[in-house]
Fold each of these.
Amino acid sequence: MDKEIIEHGFSWNRRRFLSAMSIGVGSMALGSLLMPDLFSGTGMEEGWAPGVPHFAPKAKRIIYLFQNGAPSQQELFDYKPKLREMHGQEIPPSVRGKQRLTGMTANQSSFPLVGSFVDFKQYGQSGAWISDLMPYTAKIAAELCIIKSMYTEAINHDPALTFLQTGAQQGNRPSMGAWLSYGLGNENNNLPAFTVLLSRGVGNGQGVYSKLWSNGFLDSVHQGVQFSKGEDPVLYLRDQDGMSRESRRIMLDQIAALNEKSYLEFGDPEIASRIQQYEMAYRMQTAIPEVMDISKEPESIVKLYGPDCLVPGTFAANCLLARKLSENGVRFVQLYHQGWDQHGNLPYEIAQQAKDVDQASAALVMDLKQRGLLDETLVIWGGEFGRTSYTQGELTKDNYGRDHHPRCFTVWMAGGGIKPGIVYGETDELGYNIIKDPVHVHDFQATVLNQMGLDHKKLIFKHLGRRYRLTDISGEVVRNIIS
Amino acid sequence: MLLRRNVFIPVLLFLLVGGLLYSCDNTGMQTASVVPDSVSYNFDVRPILSDKCFSCHGPDANKREAGLRLDIADSAFKALQDNPTAHAWVPGKPEESDAFLRISTQDTSLLMPPLYSNLSLTSQEIAIIKKWIQQGARYEDHWAFVAPRKQAPPAIKKSAWPINEIDFFTLAAMEAKGLTPNDPADKERLLKRLCLDLTGLPPSIEQMDAFLADSRPDAYERMVDQLLALPAYGEKMALHWLDLARYADSHGYQDDGYRTQWPWRDWVIHAFNENKPYNEFVTWQLAGDLLPDASMEQLLATAFNRNHKITEEGGVIPEEYRVMYVSDRTDLIGKGILGVTMECARCHDHKYDPFSQKEYFQLYSFFNNIREEGIESVIGGPETYAKKPMMQITNADVANMLRFINKTDTGKMIVSVMGELDTIRPTFVLHRGEYDAPGEKVAPATPVSILPFDNSYPKNRLGLAKWLFDPKHPLTARVYVNLLWQEFFGRGIVKTSGDFGMQGELPSHPALLDWLAVDFREHNWDIKRLVKLMVTSATYCQSATVSKEKLATDPENIYLSRGPRYRIHAEFIRDLVLSSSGLLNPEIGGPSVKPYQPAGLWEGATSGRGLLSIYTQDHGAALYRRGMYTLIKRTVPPPALSIFDASNRDICEVKRLRTNTPLQALVMLNDPTVLEAARVLATKLQQGSGAPEEKIRQAFRRIVCRNPDAKEIEVLSNYYQQERTTMDKSTAQKMIRVGESPLPQQADMLEIASLMRVITAIYNLEETITKS
């Protein structure tokens, strides 16, 4: 049925549809539950209907493991033996160039380079260097496309996070998940198309903000729905004590009977839509607890993700949940793991952070693979910018910190039609500047949309006279990492 | 019941698909738009050129292709740069008009807009341009940049219908479209509509009884006057202004610490209640500190322009953020007061409207001279709740001058306000809008295409305010009249209330908009008078019923042949729930409050620093304040309000989305605020006299604001009986525990719990949260 709606919706614009329709308008409201923008008129003029891909997609769903606070690439994926050689020496001015500094290091009188405290080894056919902090990730090197040449425009957390998630630093734009929900609609009408899961490590933390999963100027059905631990995984989902499913059903039937009466009197399509929203809410009340229930997962899965996956609210539990949501058709599952902002005390903190996420991130990829879902699911791992090759604060024998660094950082992708087992892009031997194949945030976003069957230049929404895109006014698909 | 509902959906789907097929086969052509006999540049042609051509052939000098500029007649008729014997437009001769040939060619290498732009013209658009050229290719000034003129209301046929001038304009448009107005709304529904619109609260039983009993011909007008005089009027009116002024209780950005701007919010309520004229209201907010012998009240009003987000993130580059604050103010005056997308000209010349980047920074320079810092302090104690420049307010100030401030303690209070530097900070055009790329130096001025800045005005914010209220100003009055129209009718006369520029929608009733704008100015910018004019019009008082015919011909009710029917704003949903149950605490103003909120929301998203890292819920009377007093922490706005499309107050917002989602259903079904209200009202009714039917009738009246009909009473009474006979005691006990208001003693819990279910169902009716 869904497909028929899409195909017919494609060629008929809203005004004709409304004026020609000889049946109750309530049915339009129903169609709009699944494809909320199909009838809104937006995009129609451009010869494209929201809810329909521009071309055959490689991936159907995305799981984005966002490492909030900016993990240090020098300690995880970007191996720089030269830094150890030059440990303690001043960074050459020719390398630093005119790079602007954050207020935290702008007044620092000296910028000594700092080699990583951790060792690296090579893995997989690409010979990717991965640090000893990531032993589980190292085992799935053959599945990963490691991009070492990401760069961004912002040097502070809030604007950088917002830029990566919404394509603009200032906020008030739809985030990536909202764009995908708008662009592709919902696969499962009992679950939201875009869900958000939060967790936190012990490292120096930066907050997250609901604007990161905002619908911006899009319809609010595209907003990311936060799933949290505990009895009420989605806000207001759980009925009050004493309200059984049967009692709820009976109440909803009374409400529907009176609303239908009101619809007959007023003829306002909003009433029909409201009736349907109550039905969807009722279905969500069953569907969400079902998908959240990990008690039926076999021992092998618990072992794969690690014991933390049984502790609600941990990154591991969220990874397992992400797999379940994705498997059930949630288009975009966004995780945030906080605590990666190592301005100081880096060696201790980053080891803890890596421990939090390493096993479960790798487990998610393997789990998707063994279920045959990795081909159609794109997994992304990374933060909002990189960290400096010089130390922030004092460099002591066993301690140092690294400041924010927008000029290069590392993310990895797996599945979803991305080439497995490759390393893309290169930074200089001090890990400060990109020397090969730079990938701007908008290039990254264009590539992600491309894998989902969307042309980033055509996925537009007209708001206050301007056509907006996730990629604002730039961005090129990184063709070389697509299989 | 279950079975019935499951069958309902596939049947609808079938009908939906069937309907689409039907439309393909038979009637698709019926409504295809036709090219008007007389083509108007403003209404027919410019929207096409602007949307499809101006981004490369418009105001932005740096992106102009082939030297061709089509938004200005002089340039458009010049010989083409690449082919001096040809012209883009040759009046009367489409076949000789080069631009027309390029848009209508079959040769895709020549076609305009080019394929790579992802833009294309429809055959109808091409036909309109062709006809426009045939009819002489006449340009017109953009309507919104020409000062409004007051025209006499048009002649109409149905002469008995109009009540005031508004109705002549709307009726003339209806008659031109072959529409007839609806009958007046019934008294009960009209009263609910009016009370929600003027106070944000539902009518009380007493108000309903009195109004129903009042048979005097001017009963409605009396009710309007009565409501306009209530303090709740100021609260209702303040809400749209708080959105516009991006008012919140936190600084925004990453740590998102607490701030104390709420005394300004109290002032806004006060200003609406004492009916401060719009010109004074805006002048004080923009430039109160620059008025001669500025009072504390005038200074407080300028907090308006310090409501923007302010960073407390250690390590930022201060100038980068200071530039953002100044830009925020510039964008606000653009969108909120002038109704134009000025912010588009920050990084380059505007693509559609005649605003250069230089003009953006000229406007910006009015706000660039403030004694402020990009970052003054990182997150901390009470000394960080406002940022310099700031004012201190003591209890003595409140007792003497600022009586409208609801100050609840004796401590000192600080509020961020405006204040000029002693010297002039130079302003430069910032290349690509970036703080570290200054270019040409500029001085304060206003966009010439709107209205040049009069040299007699001081070149500061006070001069800017004088400019806004210059009688020749084309935008200020129109934009505010339109905002209020949007509040009452649900849709602006200009639908894009934040964009009156080339890409904005054209006014549905241009002469009415102009009449209202001039009338507003001529009557000393009297807001209450304007509001009264709108809500006493026959147009406003129509029934909201929509027939199939009207839904087909005018689904959006652009021509106003029926009354407004809209879901009410988030805050007013809360107010309705609290008020109808008797729980509402009507206290006005004061520090924002923290009512029930699902656990863990702030804690899950916080950096861990500051007063707002943990949500400490209030207790007692603070739980029952109006929605507008709920504390807004910008990075985690109050969920029950956000779900109903409340603004997150990040930037100036003049039009909320109005969505209809399953999460909204969950709020109404499970938010403890709603459940507690149901329990409290159930208890009150249970302890009163009367049969269950009578109690249900009372509840229905309080919540839906009308008497239920026989069918409604039957459905709800049966529901009550069913619950009353099947519910067990332990269920009842669990249900009534919701909320912190005292539990009833020695009452029949089963009766209360059963009534509570019925009342919850009534709260969940679509009509309850709708003005109709």
Note: Residues 670-771 of chain B form one domain.
Amino acid sequence: MNIILKIIRYQIHDISRSKWLVFYTLFFFLITYGLTSFSNDQSKVILSLLNVSLIIIPLVSIIFGTVYLYNNKDFIVLILSQPIKRSVLYLGLYLGLVIPLSFSFVIGTLVPLIILGNKIPVQFTLLIFLFAAGLSQTIIFVSISFLIATWNENRILGLGLSIFTWLVFSVLYDGLLLLIINVFQSYPLEKALIGFSIFNPVDLARIIVILKLDVAALMGYTGAVFQKFFNTNLGIIISIMCLIGWTVVPLIIGKRKFSKKDF
Amino acid sequence: MSNRNGIKYYLKWLFCFLSTGLIKNSASLFLIIGFLLPGRVNFSKSLLVGSNQYFKTIKSALSAANNGDTILVYTGVYNEHSLLVNKAVKIIGIERPILTGENKYEIMKIKSNNVLVRGFLFKDTGLNFIYDNAAIKLDSVKYCTIEENKFTNNFFGIYLSRSSNCVVINNELEAFHTKETYSGNGIHLWQCREMIIKNNKIKGHRDGIYFEFVKKSEIESNISYSNLRYGLHFMFSDSCRYFHNYFTKNGAGVAVMFTKNVDMSNNIFEYNWGGAAYGLLLKDISDSKIVRNQFIKNTCAIYFEGCNRVTTLENNFLENGSAIRLMANSMDNLFTRNNFIGNSFDVNTNSTRSYNTFESNYWSEYKGYDLNKDGIGDIPFRPVKLFSFIIEQNRPALILMRSLFVDILNVAENIFPSLTPKTLIDSKPKMTKYL
Amino acid sequence: MITIDNLNKWFGAFEVLKGISAEIQKGSITYLVGPNASGKTTLIKSILGLVKPTRGTIILDGEKLNGNFSYRKKIGYMPQTASFPENLTVEEIINMIKDFRETSTTYDEELIDKFSLHKEFKKRLKNLSGGTRQKVNACIAFLFNPEIMILDEPTAGLDPVSSSILKDKILSEHKNGKTIIFTSHFLSELEELAEQVIFLLEGQIRFNGTKDKLINSTDKHNLERAIASIMIEG
């Protein structure tokens, strides 16, 4: 356990000086600053931020994670030649990347909101939703990226797979959903749709937030069914379990692969 | 405007007093002088009602009164129900006496012209589905005034039928029902003409204000909120106006149906939010005007079904779910000089063709440019997104809202329009919002 | 003592090690030699546990290697190419490895002094030349006084002065009783250090014995020619 903390510490030292992380923080800072100064309605700002976050965070997390493992392969070899357990190193690397990425997102978003805070009233529940959504995406997509990079030695293949995975979760999955909704128009689809949307972490975060904000009433019956589901304890527990599953399952498979891998 | 109304109002009264007075009174000369100096000279007698007064009950005062008399009712609780007013009297409460229906009965029924009721608290009519219990019911009368009364916990509040030229003004109505089927309307008009409903506050009824077969009437400066169904329910009521009203948090917003020549202006429709709520639901409306209203945070600001030649001018649509839902059977409607700001969907339609005109509106979604600096965007704006078109056909698709996939679809459709109506464009989108 | 028994490794359809058996005595200095892709690095990595053998065993001081990791505290490893997290400074890297090792022994910082690495301590790794990185790499390998040193092409990329500093260090550690395994390409000045030679060719051991024995057996007067003659014999 001690070793994990040390790995995390040194990795945070390393990554926090990376110019990419600075860009990433700056990106959220500018977006938030821009949106906040143009709008008087914080729920709109947060909704726009959420929109951006649900596209950018999975993309950056999955690419950054994959590239990070590839670029540091020699260093990983050096560490593995020390008396350190492989699974410990894997978890250390994972957390050492998730923590600075999350931090960067939170700081980048929070600082402009604080600077401009007296301009518009802060809506804490919405803010918590935004951070929960952003952080869960970071945790999940770094986990998936590590699995991809560990599985594939070929960098180009790995990177391609990462971008494709992002594309599936962010775009193709929803395309498929739309197709299903249209084909089975005459059937009661609500429960199936809940099932489908839970299975995609991006959709899950998106739907939970839009239900809080603008869509529920527009959707009529479907909205009511969704709202009912996500307001029950069971619904919340299932959603959280799914998010945890999307983090833990790739992490465990990746860790197992990492432990058996030849360097 | 109000000045002219005031004169009209005065003339109506004068006419009514002259016509009844001349026939029934021999001292016509005095009467005429009296009416020329209203309020200063009173020829009719006053009957006082109260625990310490000559009349202990309103009923006894009513039976003793003649046309033109005034019944002054002192404060107290009067358990008198089913009061029949069949004489032209003024019934005026002093320090708001309470009339109760004891949760069973109708309280007052007016069957005479020229009745005035002022200053009472009407409460507890109780439910009765056969007689439609109302606190005050006016049937087949003219020139009556109901003013400055309070109504609480009644089935129907003020119920007018087959009447004309009456005024309902400065009343407050409140009911506490939770189910639509167990509650009546606040101010209910059926088959009436030339009525004025003004400055009333209605809350918690089924429909705040209900108009059916009403002609040439005005609904002005009322606040109708938190009613179970509609803030205003308006049917078969041609040539009416409603303006400066505030409708908010009603179960289903405001519905205007099967009507011609209705003028809706300067109203505020706000927070009508729910699965079946509309800021303003229009069904089979023609030749009407919607001018300078505010539509704020409604599920759907205006829903058009079977509407023709309706002009929507200079309204603000702020942060609604859908600003405008335009069904295929609506034609020749004009939308111009409106502000569309921060709506989830600006225009939804279920048709690939549109015979309506959108022109010179301000759209916060518009991302075009204005090179010649004339304040008008150089490229047209297409307010119907592909996604808004899709959800009109298929509501559950709304769960895809704000997905990147949907954004991509919208962009693609914007570049190569194929499904959304090609004619539904604003060719002169304004660059800055109208003040 | 390291005992390698019938070690076999496949990378996909490619057999890299074809049944390697060898013993490396405690306190010996072994020169692992062979052309590119002969399996040198794979063999070294197998000892380090970086590569998992398909078949066969490695026993290190009586402990069979099986995914365990604590035995590596006895080993100092200098990989062929040195790569470090780019944004850390030299000092941080050295402290980091010290942290990971958790050894209470005193550190051997002789090389740091001789390479004058102290003046580079505050620089970030990405700003260092390849040679300086290699120095850092060497310092780390020697830092913990390990019983076994595994050096993969240790002098590659070093200037002649640094190279001779490193050679002296290797020799002095050998005299201190360390077990040393190093690899190198053929024309290496390092061959003079060798006592034992293991010659690998296409995943098999073609010669295993002392340097003198190798030279004598082939009638050649230096190691390079001796090895070349083995290759020609096929």
Note: Residues 70 and 253 of chain A are 18 Å apart (CA to CA).
